[in-house]
Amino acid sequence: MSTLEVTFVTADRSVWSGRAAQVVVPAADGSMGILPQMQPTLAVLDRGLVRIIGEGGEVTERDVVGGFVSVDGDVVTIAVDDAERVSRSER
């Protein structure tokens, strides 16, 4: 099974990096799902939720404010202004 190599950063820190089965980001024109073997894409991000589903099914969610996502091959780079952990009670 094909996976994505994901790097998720803010201006001052690395938020998450590793292999993932799927990524969902809040693109400026709506939610965007990213799967392996997707066409190269560059999108501006809005305020919203980034959701990374790891190879083993574990889910990481962060609230983000602005930024961009780049997809090239199976390499995904998410760069945002700020990213805060989502607590279970907020969902």
Explain this structure.
- It is a single chain.
- The protein is built from no helices and 7 strands.
- The chain has about 90 residues and is an all-beta fold.
- It has a single domain, classed as ATP Synthase, domain 1 (Sandwich).
- The protein has a 5-stranded mixed β-barrel with strand order 1-2-5-6-7.
- The radius of gyration is 12 Å and the shape is globular.
- It holds the Pfam family ATP-synt_DE_N.
- This is ATP synthase subunit epsilon.
- GO terms for molecular function: proton-transporting ATP synthase activity, rotational mechanism.
- InterPro entries: ATP_synth_F1_dsu/esu, ATP_synth_F1_dsu/esu_N, ATPsynth_dsu/esu_N.
- It comes from Brachybacterium muris UCD-AY4.
Concise structural overview:
It is found in: Cell membrane. With 91 residues, this protein is mainly beta.
Number of strands: 7
CATH topology (level 3) name? ATP Synthase, domain 1
Quaternary state of this entry equals: single chain
CATH-assigned homologous superfamily: F0F1 ATP synthase delta/epsilon subunit, N-terminal
Give the count of structural domains: 1
Order of helices and strands: EEEEEEE
Rg, nearest Å: 12 Å
The computed structural class is mainly beta
Mean pLDDT: 94
- Major sheet strand order: 1-2-5-6-7
Count of separate DSSP helical elements? 0
Largest sheet: 5 strands, mixed, barrel
Main location: membrane
Protein name: ATP synthase subunit epsilon
GO molecular function: proton-transporting ATP synthase activity, rotational mechanism
Domain ATP synthase F1 complex delta/epsilon subunit N-terminal: 4-83
